[in-house]
Amino acid sequence: MNENNKKIFPMKIVAITVILTIALMVTGLYLAGFHLPHRSVMPQGEVLLDEPEEQLWTCGMHPWIITKEPGLCPICNMDLVIKADAGAGDEKNNKERKIAYWRAPMDPMEIYGAPGKSKMGMDLTPVYEDELIGGVAVKVDPVTRQNMGIRTEMAEKGILKHTIRTYGHITYDETRTAQISPKVDGWIEELHVNFTGEAVKKGQPLLEIYSPQLLSAQEEYLSVYRSLKGGRQTQAGSFLESSRRRLSYFDVAEAEIQAMEASGQVNKTVRIRSPFSGVVTHNRAVQGGYVKAGTPLYTISDLSRVWVEAHIYEYELARVRVGQDAQMSLPYLPGKIYQGKITFIYPYLQEKTRDVVIRLEFENPLMELKPQMYGDVSIKTGGTETGIMIPSESVIRSGERNLVFVARGEGKFTPREVSLGASLDHGKVQVITGLGPGESVVTSGQFLLDSESKLQEAVKKMMDVAKESSTPALDDADDFFEDMK
């Protein structure tokens, strides 16, 4: 071995030793799961932060698209935005819970926008936003928001005005309807009203009937009257009063009795008169016909006031009461509104239609409202009842739950599940729980936000599953060796 070889040999040994040492160190780091950069904790609890991470870019509508350089989203071709630090935001949200609204501890439907006392004098309890979230929040930049056509409207507290719109049919006022029938057997000698639909006045003669029984009663009265007038009977006064009462029971008018006293002769026939003004709705009287006592000959109805029977559903029954105002319009008189009131609510449901009939009363001085007509009826309900209301179009109804998107500022929209009450006028709907007064809800573009929220929720679940099934230590070591190459 020459001198050169002697000098090179120790250097080879040193080099091999260094290489083996490095290999052992790398192997140890690999097995220990060492990765760079990392965070280390000091004994006193102080944290040494990593080196600043490089800036990442993402899409506002597709957050799983993440790149190291700015550019366009490969899906929607929108400009990428700087990816925010989600961890810091979560820590801040955990420290500061935002109150959505305040409610009474004994009545969850009693909602207020500020702390205070309930109607029962109890302290209001706060309801936090994180308790009402119905999905993953969505953040949209101003440009995207404008392209999506997102509009919002504020939830307000006020009087719950609801108008029931239904149909009704006009019928006779049963309290102003009479049936005319003779109280004795006899023959119809003359008809003064002989067709259905004829208008009659109170006291107007309807027919003249000949009856032996009536004739006998007239002769008896006239005989007693003559005796009393001649002074031949001392007890004639009581008999006269009894005979006069008997004629009145047979519906003989007072004017006819006086005419009989003046003439001194009985009338062959007796006139039957109308008890009030109205219209003949049924007529069974025939000239010369024989009728028995109690046979209905006429039905007369006073149409100066009519009934309207309107039909409402079961769930609307709690909103109507006797005395409420109602309006009605008719197809043959467009533009004219008739004012009426609810006078009776039937205590049972219709067997076939399964609805409830309510009775309305309308004045009819011009006889424009005719029985059996149909009209459009509207009943304003609500009164002094107050509550939270929002536009009905802002609610996403899936059948299982009702969802709205609440605008939280800075382009953030949070889905929230709400409980709804009755539909209100002007396209509003009552909110029982889930929203407070003054909160802004999305009225246009909420379906796009819902789709994005569901998509982000699905991606988040996939990422959580991937994190649980992966081995971060080995993955980081692989990255380390790739950097070493």
What features would you describe in this structure?
This protein is an alpha+beta fold and 485 residues long. It has 4 domains: 3-48, no CATH class; 129-159 and 386-469, conserved putative lor/sdh protein from methanococcus maripaludis s2 fold (Beta Barrel); 163-174 and 302-381, Efflux pump adaptor protein, beta barrel domain (Elongation Factor Tu (Ef-tu), domain 3); 182-295, OB fold (Dihydrolipoamide Acetyltransferase, E2P). It has 8 helices and 31 strands. It has helices at residues 3-32, 86-95, 142-148, 212-230, 236-249, 254-263, 446-469, 472-484, and strands at residues 40-41, 47-48, 57-58, 66-67, 81-82, 99-103, 111-112, 125-128, 138-139, 151-154, 156-159, 162-171, 177-180, 186-191, 199-200, 205-210, 269-273, 278-283, 290-291, 298-301, 305-312, 325-330, 333-349, 356-363, 374-381, 386-391, 396-397, 402-409, 412-423, 428-433, 440-444. Strand 6 and strand 7 form a beta hairpin. Helix 4 runs antiparallel to helix 5. The protein is rod-shaped. The relative contact order is 0.15.
Structure described in brief:
Residues 57-83 form the Heavy metal binding domain. The chain has helices at residues 3-32, 86-95, 142-148, 212-230, 236-249, 254-263, 446-469, 472-484; strands spanning 40-41, 47-48, 57-58, 66-67, 81-82, 99-103, 111-112, 125-128, 138-139, 151-154, 156-159, 162-171, 177-180, 186-191, 199-200, 205-210, 269-273, 278-283, 290-291, 298-301, 305-312, 325-330, 333-349, 356-363, 374-381, 386-391, 396-397, 402-409, 412-423, 428-433, 440-444. It is α+β, with helices and mostly antiparallel strands and 485 residues long.
